[in-house]
């Protein structure tokens, strides 16, 4: 089919490339829509900007959850299962695409999509022309323009038929999920399932970070969320110590200490990570700082420094021995 349809939205045109199956699905608030998409410029070459098939992971959005590209909900709810359609959208609908694409690309790269995000509303972000880190998206930010979206709809899940990801939860649901995830993590630690426990703590932190991103930094609500987040991050770091992920521990404990330089537990865990990667001076400084901030940790810090000293002496001895050539065997 190549007929062009005008949806009941100004500045949007639809062309069905492959007809779908059955009746139009029932879309309601909370329905999860799974689909693949391709984004193209409206130029002679139809330059491809993004293609979800390259990552091999379909895109998902939740109906009624104020996805930044609001027009996508309009496009998808006009489709049948397995339908492939091409949509032309005027610039009035595409101004947020650069930020949406940046987040999706960061997720595909295994990075935090919220990292470095400023506290401001969507309109504020739309007119923030600082670099997205991607040259083609910077161009879209500077010059909003019509875009073409080719979409294939795979399935529509009823709200009760799936476990919602944290990003799809309401504020109240996220706050309620945090203590549950915390308890699950603690239970897994008791069974020495550190990797699974770390995932629970991380999911709880993500819930809180999503909420914190909507608050003004260092104000009361932001600080309350930070206080809830810190013990979860410390538990996560303890799991990473058990798993031998020392550089990750260094990164996250340093992040904690940048926000609260009097957290003795963060100093102690960072000291253990420094010791594990042979940073003797940094480890001793952190152990001493932990003991100074919390005298109840002094004995443990002293014990760890003794173990560190023994490890360092053994290492120096091994290095010294390796610098000498072995005595040659006598000729027979």
TrEMBL record:
Residue intervals of the AIP/AIPL N-terminal FKBP-type PPIase domain: 26-155
Keyword Nucleotide-binding: no
Sample GO molecular function, one term: peptidyl-prolyl cis-trans isomerase activity
Leader sequence segment: none
Cellular localisation: Cytoplasm
Origin: domain of life: Eukaryota
Intervals holding TPR repeats: 264-297
Keywords: Cytoplasm, Repeat, TPR repeat
One Gene Ontology CC term in the entry: cytoplasm
PANTHER family: ARYL HYDROCARBON RECEPTOR INTERACTING PROTEIN RELATED, PPIASE FKBP-TYPE DOMAIN-CONTAINING PROTEIN
Name recorded for this polypeptide: Trichohyalin-like
